[in-house]
Write a structure and sequence with these properties.
Oligomer: single chain
Radius of gyration: 18 Å
CATH class of the largest domain: Mainly Alpha
Strand order of the largest sheet: 2-1-3-4
CATH topology of the largest domain: Glutathione S-transferase Yfyf (Class Pi), Chain A, domain 2
Number of strands: 4
Structural class: alpha+beta
């Protein structure tokens, strides 16, 4: 059985959502981010990304980590792409061309979109209003061009690869969720907004989201 290390309130949500899409059973070990604990190194502290037992599994100290037999993988996009390839259609690549396109869009989302999207989520939830305004303006400005690329692609193709919902849509939807609370930004991209709503309406996403909400904040 697969083992996913990481709480659902983390990038582990991507792997969990995919497992629900594929009806893959898994065991979840709820490793929490160390920064969420007052003293992650204290005796009796919850299992976290600085716990020695976890660091032996993942020296980088990041979640999620996927165990699939003897294979141990970190990096959420690597985990989801591995599972989609292994378990095939319809979420995985149908051929080498789709595989290459899935890699392309995954790297694009991680490098051109995720850092700024995370900055938006942080500014909306954690910063003082006077700080948030500056961060929001900068991040939204930097996202305009890459989101226009995605908007135009979705307008022409409906989905990211192969004209069907795949692991690329799942990964990108989870990355864009970080920026979803910026109404002014998302209003500029109606095709992305409609596509994102459809992704999040899927039963597997809804199941993951209920599990996420059930976890302590």
């Amino acid at each position: 059985m697969l083992t996913i290390h990481g709480v659902t309130r983390s990038r582990a949500s991507r792997v969990i959502w995919l497992c629900h899409e594929l009806n893959l059973p898994f065991r979840q070990v709820p490793v929490i981010q160390a920064y969420r604990l007052a003293d992650p190194d204290a005796p009796g502290a919850a299992l976290n990304t600085r716990s020695p037992d976890f660091l032996r599994l993942s020296p980088a100290g990041t979640i999620p980590v996927l165990e699939d037999g003897d294979l141990v993988l970190s990096e959420s996009l690597a985990c989801t792409l591995h599972l989609a390839r292994r378990h095939g259609q319809p979420l995985g690549p149908a051929d080498a061309v789709e595989d290459a396109l899935m890699l392309q869009w995954g790297f694009y989302a991680a490098t051109a979109i995720e850092p700024q999207a995370l900055a938006i989520q942080t500014s909306l939830g954690q910063l003082r209003p006077e700080e948030a305004e500056t961060v929001l303006a900068k991040a939204a400005g930097e996202l305009t061009r890459p989101l226009r690329v995605i908007e135009d692609h979705l307008a022409r193709h409906g989905q990211m690869v192969g004209g069907r919902f795949t692991v690329v849509d799942l990964n990108l939807a989870e990355i864009l969720r970080y920026a979803q609370g910026h109404d002014g930004l998302m209003a500029q991209f109606p095709t992305i907004s409609a596509w994102l709503a459809a992704c999040q309406a899927r039963p597997a996403f809804q199941r993951m989201w209920r599990e996420r909400l059930a976890e302590p904040e």
